[in-house]
Amino acid sequence: MYLKKLEQVSANRTDGKKLQLNLTTNGTTIERVGKSILASTAVRQVNFSTHAYAELPFDEAAENLQNVLDFCRMVAVARPDMYINLRLWNVGDESSNAWNKYMLEQVNKAFGHVDNADKNRADSADKNRATITLEHFCSRHKSFLVEGRIYIHQDSRFEWPEVSGSSPTSTTSQTLKALGSAQPAYLKGTCRALDTHCAILHDGRVVACCLDHSGQITLGHIQENSLAEILTSPMATNIREGFANHELRHPFCQSCKFCKRFK
Fold this sequence. Notes:
Elements: H1 3-11, E1 21-25, H2 30-39, E2 43-49, H3 58-78, E3 83-91, H4 97-110, E4 143-147, E5 150-156, H5 168-179, E6 187-188, E7 199-200, E8 205-207, E9 218-221, H6 227-231, H7 234-244, E10 247-248, H8 251-254
Parallel strand pairs: 1-2, 2-3, 3-5
Antiparallel strand pairs: 4-5, 6-10, 7-8, 8-9
Helix pairs in contact: 2-3, 3-4
């Protein structure tokens, strides 16, 4: 992880605005790195893709989930200012229902939520901790409060954008070629990437958004350049200007269905 370097970036800002990091992870290493995350003042939110566990052997999935819930309990005590999202982004996938049910049962157990039938036996401090079930979620109510700033968030599956048959190197070359074109034809669309956020992959590659899990838009490497240098590079500037003009200038962005949510 690159928390120390990003904490320094935040400390060196002269505008008084601190860098706020949102970490998105499947949580498989949280038992090892959890204390470092808790100690980092730059981390604002951690998103756990717990829906990914539905595709793992049950014993492995259950162990990963337990480690995540242990971390959540530590956050509730040591960092009550930190947001946690436990994601179940697999709505409509019936094969995941068994895992989703188990996951919610473990959350209820970990945080003392009780069934309606058990409320009379619950302590007075726990009477508002109703059991969270799949029936609580709908298109208008996707988040459910667990405790403090810890939430369960459910949503439908989405397709990861990717340029078919291309590598990060080839898509980068296509974009650089487009930079030199006089009047390239672009698909219409926009995105909040490089405006409200960017992403850093586990190996330090900086990309435009967290959907670029394979580094199709590699803007630079946090170990080699400062974040400011990377975000003002020719490629980053070109992509950002494209979004401002409702132009999807990178092949990866043109393949993304998520950006269609933005008008």
